[in-house]
Specification:
Strand 1 and strand 2 form a beta hairpin. It contains two helices and five strands; from the N terminus they run βββαβαβ. It has one domain: Alpha/Beta hydrolase fold, catalytic domain (Rossmann fold), CATH 3.40.50. With 98 residues, it is an alpha/beta fold. InterPro entries: AB_hydrolase, AB_hydrolase_1, AB_hydrolase_fold.
């Protein structure tokens, strides 16, 4: 599955994500602190089989297959910026957030 190379603003993070489906309604599944996107497996499995949806889940920075900057303070503000950068990377103009 793909990785998003995020900008210097995101400390050149390599963010692992899984994209499912190709529908017009977009959903991003965001896990809590220090958790990878695999925790959304049941939900993404359901939505990927629905033709009207496209959904993405991802591993937070420092978790799973995403990079783990060692000299960076992890904050919820920065993690929100990571989510926005992934949405930009996917070229989504709007999405539902779970």
């Amino acid at each position: 599955m793909p990785h998003a190379k995020l900008s210097a603003e995101n400390h050149n993070l390599d963010l692992y994500y899984e994209l499912h489906g190709s529908g017009k309604t977009k959903i991003i599944f965001i896990m809590g602190l220090m958790t990878d996107g695999g925790a959304w497996f049941s939900q993404t499995s359901f939505f990927r089989d629905q033709p009207e949806y496209q959904c993405v889940s991802y591993d937070n920075r420092g978790c799973g297959r995403s990079s783990a900057p060692l000299t960076f303070k992890y904050t919820t503000t920065q993690m929100a910026k990571d989510a926005l950068a992934l949405i930009d990377h996917l070229k989504w103009t709007e999405c539902d957030v779970v």
